[in-house]
Amino acid sequence: MSGFSNIKAQLKSFLIEIGDLSFFTKRCFKELVKRPFEFKELLRQCYNMGNRSLFLVAITGFIIGLVLTLQTRPTLMEFGAVSWMPSMVSISIVREIGPIITALVCAGRIGSGIGAELGSMRVTEQIDAMEVSGTNPFKYLVVTRVLAVTLMLPLLVIIGDVIAIFGSFLVENVKGNVSFMLYFNQVFDALEFGDFIPATIKSFFFGSAIGIVGCFKGYNCEKGTEGVGKAANSAVVFTSLLLFILDFIAVFVTDIFYDL
């Protein structure tokens, strides 16, 4: 019975947290359209999140391109289909691998950073001080960060995709002596405009999820330094789970529209 009671308590706590996150998201969208608009803080957050994540996204994308090509090439060689490598790699990266891997990297880099930063501000009562001084801390701290991640993630995804495809080209150039023009001609022949639209749209949702969960965990951080660590850790875990759920929904909806 004690085990059942523990499961029941955890389920209740999870559902309560989902409800709190829903109200937090609703408030975020309401504050988004209200004046004043914090453009200066928004630009600062865009620079911090985009610039500081660029190197990590670039390295990750480059390694993905290398590994995907190295692992796939022997199988394609058995069937005499090595010429399909540029098409397969580019479509796989643009449609699925690039957006979800970049989002997971940013969840660890940006989501944990937001959770720790806002958690520290909550613990040191900086957020309370802003409320007392008449400033709207929710709009200044939360809305700007959520919007910044939402805008920056699609750009990071595009950069990661390009670098991943370039990494794949390097493997093909070394292993198969394929020229730059030949490889990228096949890449652009394989890709269609419809491949970019779903990936770009879901990248915006990924960015919103990273920003909202990170801000939610940090803004509602428990008192004490231990609470800051929990906020940063739970922001990454919860965001990663949410990203996979959103990715499944996006793929399912896209598949329906492609079948029409």
TrEMBL record:
What protein name applies here? ABC transporter permease
Q: Does Membrane count among this protein's keywords?
A: yes
Q: What is its subcellular localisation?
A: Membrane
Membrane-crossing segments per the record: 53-70, 146-171, 196-216, 236-258
Note the topology in the membrane.
Multi-pass membrane protein
Query: Is the Transmembrane keyword given for this protein?
Result: yes
Keywords, comma-separated and alphabetical: Membrane, Transmembrane, Transmembrane helix, Transport
Primary place of residence?
A: membrane
Entry's Pfam families? Answer: MlaE (PF02405)
Q: Which organism is it from?
A: Gilvirhabdus luticola
Query: What family does the Swiss-Prot or TrEMBL record give for this protein?
Result: Belongs to the MlaE permease family.
Q: Which residues form the signal peptide?
A: none
